Amino acid sequence: MMAMPMVGRAPAVEELRRAWSRVRAHREPIAAVVTGAAGTGKSALVAAFLREQEKTSVLAGTARVHSPAPYDWLAAVLAGRDTRGLDVPPDALSWLKQDPDVPRERYTPDALLRIAVSVVRHLVGRAEAVLVVEDLHALDPASLNLIAELATTDLPALLLVTSQPPGAAVSPQLTERTLARLGGTPGAVRRHLSGLLPAEVGQILQHVYGSEASSPELAEAIWRRTEGNPYRLTELLAVEGADVLRTPAADLTAREREVLGLIAEGMANKQIASALGISVRTVTVHVSNLLRKTGAASRTEAALWALSGRRSGDHQAGWRDNPRAARSQSSA
Ligand SMILES: Nc1ncnc2c1ncn2[C@@H]1O[C@H](COP(=O)(O)OP(=O)(O)OP(=O)(O)O)[C@@H](O)[C@H]1O
Ligand SMILES: [Mg+2]
Q1: I need a surface site. Which of 251, 266, 305, 332 has the fewest CB within 10 A?
Q2: pLDDT single digits (tens) 23-79
């Protein structure tokens, strides 16, 4: 599959650019916190921004192991770096680099935090730097504390942090508190990424399959299948290839929409039949047609399809009308 073009994130990239130019103008730290569910494009956004910063010094780290050791972010930053010139106690440095067999007991937590801050200070040096903290939600408590601490120093650094929502974190409360601490620092930027819009999904389809291959209806149908999540979209395109173009664009009849509305309210076919005054057999036919058209694998999935449509009613025609109103109209 052709690589997907980056869509829909221009305002977010622009916001990062502005934060970065403030760092350079005022030579003080600014935190930029990008949150979003798994696969919404946080890393892709960071990468797009960093591609523009060719000559910038970048310190990047992330949680590397499932249950990260203390200061795992810093250890990731230090990995493979020449640290000989650093003016910190060698045993503390070895410990921060997670060398095996180095006891930590010599240092109190406060002393280690001070040492960790001074290591970062040395690495940053005089020029402005971008400190990238990927997947803060997966980091250890010592790293979280260090990062919040760095945001209150006088380092001329953009602290570019990505995180899934605290609910997805190893320690939700600590993650939430750290995000709040970072977000509360002067000049902080906060960006929550949601899924792409149907039109943006359409742009990607056009790019990959050409303009003839894509219609708003198809974009809409694929958007529903992926909820606009870029990761799910890449997966879908990788698995289905050009077959994805055969996704039925949902053009439900008024009756099918009514039936779907009642499914979403939790009704069984029999209840739907009596609510609409039609036979159970007819309901069955409507149900199978609407499953086919929406591409849903089950009633539950179709119900979710209906509900997601109502939540974001601006994006598509049809679901703005209330099924109850439609019902009373059609029975009149
Ligand atoms: N705006 C976008 N336009 C096109 N493709 C995108 C966009 N954002 C992300 N992608 C693609 O979607 C996939 C997932 O994106 P990414 O890895 O950045 O998500 P993430 O939010 O960092 O996920 P995680 O929380 O799992 O780290 C990648 O293949 C990426 O290239
Ligand atoms: Mg990521």
Answers
A1: 332
A2: 999 999 999 999 999 999 999 999 999 999 988 899 999 888 666 678 999 999 998
Tokens representing 238 are 């990788």
pLDDT in tens, 195-205: 999 999 999 99
Of the listed ligands, the closest to the CA of 193 is 1
Whether ligand 1 lies within 6 angstroms of the CB of 202 is answered as: no
Q: Given the CA of residue 40, which atom of ligand 1 is nearest to it?
A: 21
Please give the helix or strand (H or E) that residue 130 lies within, else none.
strand 129-134
Atom 2 (ligand 1) nearest CA: 6
User: What element of type H or E holds 60?
Assistant: strand 57-62
Nearest alpha-carbon partner for 67 in 138, 156, 147: 138
CA atoms of 306 and 296, how far apart (whole Å):
10
pTM over 0.85? The answer is: no
Sheet with 157-163: strands ordered across = 57-62, 129-134, 157-163, 30-35, 189-192
CA–centroid distance, residue 20 to ligand 1 (Å): 22
